[in-house]
Amino acid sequence: MRKKSFGRKVLNFLRKFSLLNSFENKQLTEEYESRILAIKEKNSQIVFKTYYLPKAISAILREENYLTTPRQAEPRATAMMLSDLANGVIDEFYRFK
To answer: How far apart, in whole angstroms, are the C-alpha atoms of residue 10 and residue 16?
Structure first.
Protein backbone atom coordinates (compact mmCIF):
# COMPACT_ATOMS: atom_id res chain seq x y z
CA MET A 1 0.00 0.00 0.00
CA ARG A 2 1.39 3.38 -0.97
CA LYS A 3 1.74 6.13 1.56
CA LYS A 4 -0.15 9.33 0.93
CA SER A 5 1.98 12.40 0.60
CA PHE A 6 1.61 15.18 3.13
CA GLY A 7 0.13 17.50 0.49
CA ARG A 8 -2.52 14.95 -0.44
CA LYS A 9 -3.45 14.47 3.23
CA VAL A 10 -3.81 18.23 3.71
CA LEU A 11 -5.92 18.53 0.57
CA ASN A 12 -8.21 15.72 1.69
CA PHE A 13 -8.56 17.38 5.09
CA LEU A 14 -9.38 20.78 3.55
CA ARG A 15 -12.01 19.23 1.28
CA LYS A 16 -14.11 18.52 4.36
CA PHE A 17 -14.80 22.25 4.73
CA SER A 18 -17.75 23.24 2.56
CA LEU A 19 -16.43 26.70 1.64
CA LEU A 20 -13.14 25.36 0.34
CA ASN A 21 -14.87 22.42 -1.30
CA SER A 22 -17.31 24.66 -3.18
CA PHE A 23 -14.44 26.93 -4.27
CA GLU A 24 -12.55 23.93 -5.67
CA ASN A 25 -15.70 22.65 -7.38
CA LYS A 26 -16.27 26.05 -8.99
CA GLN A 27 -12.71 26.16 -10.33
CA LEU A 28 -12.91 22.61 -11.66
CA THR A 29 -16.25 23.32 -13.32
CA GLU A 30 -14.90 26.44 -15.02
CA GLU A 31 -11.84 24.54 -16.25
CA TYR A 32 -14.01 21.68 -17.52
CA GLU A 33 -16.39 24.00 -19.38
CA SER A 34 -13.53 25.93 -20.99
CA ARG A 35 -11.93 22.69 -22.21
CA ILE A 36 -15.24 21.45 -23.62
CA LEU A 37 -15.71 24.76 -25.43
CA ALA A 38 -12.16 24.57 -26.84
CA ILE A 39 -12.78 21.02 -28.11
CA LYS A 40 -16.06 22.04 -29.76
CA GLU A 41 -14.42 25.05 -31.40
CA LYS A 42 -11.49 23.05 -32.73
CA ASN A 43 -13.76 20.29 -34.05
CA SER A 44 -16.09 22.78 -35.73
CA GLN A 45 -13.20 24.48 -37.53
CA ILE A 46 -11.81 21.17 -38.75
CA VAL A 47 -15.18 19.92 -40.02
CA PHE A 48 -15.96 23.28 -41.60
CA LYS A 49 -12.66 23.54 -43.49
CA THR A 50 -12.35 19.92 -44.57
CA TYR A 51 -15.95 18.96 -45.29
CA TYR A 52 -18.44 21.81 -45.59
CA LEU A 53 -16.29 24.34 -47.45
CA PRO A 54 -15.35 21.94 -50.27
CA LYS A 55 -18.95 20.71 -50.36
CA ALA A 56 -20.24 24.28 -50.74
CA ILE A 57 -17.71 25.10 -53.46
CA SER A 58 -18.74 21.96 -55.33
CA ALA A 59 -22.44 22.79 -55.00
CA ILE A 60 -21.92 26.35 -56.28
CA LEU A 61 -19.90 25.04 -59.23
CA ARG A 62 -22.55 22.45 -60.07
CA GLU A 63 -25.55 24.78 -59.69
CA GLU A 64 -24.22 28.10 -60.98
CA ASN A 65 -21.43 26.88 -63.30
CA TYR A 66 -18.63 29.00 -61.90
CA LEU A 67 -15.74 28.32 -59.61
CA THR A 68 -15.85 30.36 -56.45
CA THR A 69 -13.26 31.16 -53.81
CA PRO A 70 -13.41 29.64 -50.34
CA ARG A 71 -14.12 33.09 -48.91
CA GLN A 72 -17.15 33.50 -51.17
CA ALA A 73 -18.39 30.01 -50.30
CA GLU A 74 -18.19 30.52 -46.52
CA PRO A 75 -21.80 31.71 -46.04
CA ARG A 76 -23.18 28.71 -47.89
CA ALA A 77 -20.86 26.30 -46.05
CA THR A 78 -21.91 27.83 -42.74
CA ALA A 79 -25.57 27.41 -43.64
CA MET A 80 -24.98 23.78 -44.61
CA MET A 81 -23.18 23.04 -41.35
CA LEU A 82 -25.82 24.74 -39.21
CA SER A 83 -28.56 22.91 -41.08
CA ASP A 84 -26.88 19.55 -40.44
CA LEU A 85 -26.39 20.49 -36.79
CA ALA A 86 -30.08 21.39 -36.44
CA ASN A 87 -31.21 18.23 -38.24
CA GLY A 88 -29.05 15.95 -36.11
CA VAL A 89 -26.61 14.89 -38.82
CA ILE A 90 -23.75 16.04 -36.59
CA ASP A 91 -23.72 16.21 -32.82
CA GLU A 92 -22.71 19.05 -30.51
CA PHE A 93 -19.05 18.02 -30.81
CA TYR A 94 -19.32 18.15 -34.62
CA ARG A 95 -19.03 14.41 -35.09
CA PHE A 96 -21.10 12.78 -37.80
CA LYS A 97 -23.69 10.35 -36.52
So the answer is: 10
CA atoms within 13 A on the CB side of 87: 8
Please give the mean pLDDT across all residues of the chain: 90
CA separation (Å) from 20 to 16, 17, 27, 46, 82?
8, 6, 11, 39, 42
Query: Helices 70-87 & 53-64, crossing angle to 10 degrees?
Result: 110
DSSP letters, the chain, are -PPPPHHHHHHHHHTTSHHHHHHHHHHHHHHHHHHHHHHHHHHHHHHIIIIIHHHHHHHHHHHHSS---HHHHHHHHHHHHHHHHHHTSB-TTS-B-
pLDDT tens digit sequence for 75-97: 999 999 999 999 999 999 999 98
Give me the residues paired with residue 96 across strands.
90
